[in-house]
Write a structure and sequence with these properties.
mainly alpha; Four Helix Bundle (Hemerythrin (Met), subunit A); single chain
Length: about 240
């Protein structure tokens, strides 16, 4: 029975991604679709945690995890972006679906790349999914339609995301081996900055519009990418 617990959690991750796609395609509810991506991320964390806790890691669990991740962190954000930019851009919006394909490629590379045990080479799919889920959910709350340059810029940025997913750019992970400042300075700086961003977004959201609160996820990922690039230049 305990061997099936991590796999069951992985399947919950997959179901969250599938529900996210259905939610945005058939109901147009971007906020709920984004919430389902976040819920999938929680299950993605829990399945690995439980596998290590129970000592039941297996090859099939690793493959199932990648399949689930491509649905939740590849197809779901791609569907959200596609649905958001389809009306103004028409079939040019199909470019958004490339993110699902590049997410699958990134996950396949991750499974084979032994360099990524303590950090990432290329942007992790959950980070990419949180950025696009947060951004589209936030923009969907503003008065529509937005100027044409907004969806056009988003389409171009999706190509940049595809590049980052499979790039050789190092990104730090949030895995703590210990709690020392020297070994985890970048992680502590990131977490403090992320907390400040979320608090500021919630305050502005409560005063002005909750769209700003939803945009916190995208802002945190931009902070993560910027800090990764900065720490790389410093050789940390």
């Amino acid at each position: 029975m305990k061997r099936n617990i991590p796999n069951a959690l992985t399947c919950c991750n997959l179901l969250c991604g599938a529900l996210s796609v259905i939610c945005v395609v058939y109901d147009g509810n971007f906020a709920v679709a984004f919430a389902l991506i976040l819920m999938g991320a929680v299950f993605d964390f829990l399945d690995g945690f439980m596998a290590r806790l129970l000592g039941v890691s297996s090859p099939i669990g690793k493959e199932l995890d990648s399949l689930a991740d491509d649905i939740t962190f590849g197809l779901a954000p791609a569907a959200m972006l596609f649905m958001y930019i389809f009306e103004p851009l028409g079939y040019w919006a199909l470019v958004a679906l490339l993110m699902a394909a590049f997410s699958a490629l990134r996950l396949a590379k991750f499974n084979l790349d032994e360099r990524q045990t303590t950090s990432f080479i290329g942007l992790a799919t959950p980070a990419n999914a949180i950025f696009w889920g947060s951004l589209t959910a936030a923009l969907s709350l503003f008065a529509q339609p937005l100027p044409l340059w907004v969806p056009a810029t988003m389409a171009v940025l999706s190509l940049l995301s595809c590049y980052l997913l499979v790039s050789e750019i190092p990104f730090f992970s949030l895995k703590f081996k210990n709690m020392s400042w020297q070994d985890n300075s970048v992680r502590f700086v990131f977490l403090c900055g992320a907390l400040l961003i979320i608090i500021a977004a919630v305050i502005v959201g409560a005063i002005v519009s909750w769209a700003y609160a939803l945009a916190a996820g995208a802002a945190v990922i931009v902070w993560y990418v910027a800090l990764s690039l900065f720490s790389q230049r410093r050789g940390e």
